[in-house]
Write a structure and sequence with these properties.
A hairpin with a 2-residue loop joins strand 6 and strand 7. The chain starts with 14 loop residues before the first helix and ends with a helix. Strands 1, 2, 3, 4, 5, 8, 9, 10, 11 and 12 form a 10-stranded mixed sheet that branches. A two-stranded antiparallel sheet has the order 6-7. It has 11 helices and 12 strands. The protein is globular, with a radius of gyration of 20 Å. Helix 4 crosses helix 5 and helix 5 runs parallel beside helix 7. It binds ligand PBG. The site of ligand PBG has 10 residues, from helix 6.
């Protein structure tokens, strides 16, 4: 039976009916809000390439997280910008490092907020790479020792979930072993499993002052040309103990989100990265696109593709809009 009996426009005539037949619904509880934390007090430094995003000192970070929580956002993920960087990223596993302090402050002052931490040493190394460098190469197994120490220090500070983003082989198993040995067997791991060597991380590296001082990340992050390999990455991570897996970036990789959503039975996260955010912001600032509409469309698309949760710098703006709409 086709036209004229079937008219798909019938269900599009009325706003209420359109909403009733919507297949995908966004809610603030879909979001994880990424936050940059730095040393000092009363600091809120704007990040030039990410309008509306800041590097926060711990005291102000707590306020920002409280605002997010009040909007219905259940979780934040923390990235640290330390005072000192060195070859091995030692401040990444200092028990009084910026992230460790932030975790303690958040868990004390906002116990109902789920606090996640990014586990990767690139923000802490002088060379900006996600691993230990030897003769110009990023060495895998030695890096795992740093990651174990880092995950351990976050666990001891009281974090609710750790999220390794370095893309070293074997990192999930290694961190799982470490946590289990220390009695943190119930602390979940969200693996950045399908993390692509993307040019869309540039504003983040600006924010975290973590651009590699030589070379690039293509010897550890995935080739944007590959889709089947994402399934291998995810399967390995699940075998090693990942509880949630992630695709990153999100919008250019929605095919991967879709494929993995069908291939795996663990929850799936997608990271709308800095470049995705900044492109929308820039387009809107130029007056070429409507910021709110494009923001909502981008987030809806990520969810429609199959993501169970979305890491997004738009978390607060989108939650505010969704809440307003609900109150109408
Ligand atoms: C690595 C890490 C990066 C991002 C999240 N974790 C940067 C990178 O791999 O260069 C990028 C996030 C974004 O662009 O928003 N610690």
């Amino acid at each position: 039976m086709g036209f004229p009996r079937q008219r798909l426009r019938r269900l599009r005539q009325h706003q209420i009916l359109r909403e009733m037949v919507q297949e995908t619904n966004l809610t603030p509880s879909d979001f994880v809000y990424p936050l940059f934390v730095t040393f000092g007090k009363e600091r809120q430094e704007p990040i030039a390439s990410m309008p509306g995003q800041y590097r926060w000192s711990v005291d102000l970070l707590v306020k920002e997280a409280a605002e997010a929580k009040a909007l219905g956002i259940p979780s934040v993920i923390l990235f640290g910008i330390p005072e000192q960087k060195d070859e091995r990223g030692t401040s990444a596993y200092d028990k009084d490092g910026v992230v460790q302090q932030a975790v303690r402050a958040l868990k004390t002052q906002l116990p109902d907020l789920l606090v996640m931490t990014d586990v990767c040493i690139d923000e802490y190394t002088s060379h900006g790479h996600c691993g230990i460098v030897r003769d110009g190469r990023i060495v895998n197994d030695e890096t795992l020792d740093c990651l174990r120490l880092m995950a351990r220090s976050h666990a001891e500070a009281g974090v609710d979930l750790v999220a390794p983003s370095d893309m070293m082989d074997g990192r999930i198993g290694s961190i799982r072993d470490e946590l289990d040995q220390l009695g943190f067997q119930d602390l979940p791991i969200m693996a950045y499993s399908a993390k692509y060597a993307s040019s869309l991380y540039a504003p983040f590296r600006d924010a975290a002052l973590s651009s590699p001082s030589f070379g690039d990340r293509r010897s550890y992050q995935m080739d944007p040309a590959n889709a089947r390999e994402a399934i291998r990455e995810v399967q390995l991570d699940i075998d090693e103990g990942a509880d949630i897996v992630m695709v990153k970036p999100a919008s250019f990789y929605l095919d991967i989100v879709r494929v993995l959503g069908e291939a795996v039975t663990v929850p799936l996260a997608a990271y709308q990265v800095s470049g995705e955010y900044s492109m929308i912001k820039a387009g809107a600032q130029l007056g070429w696109i409507d910021e709110q509409n494009v923001m909502m469309e981008s987030l809806l698309s990520i969810k429609r593709a199959g993501a169970d949760m979305i890491l997004t710098y738009f978390a607060k703006d989108a939650a505010r809009l969704l809440n307003q709409h609900r109150l109408l």
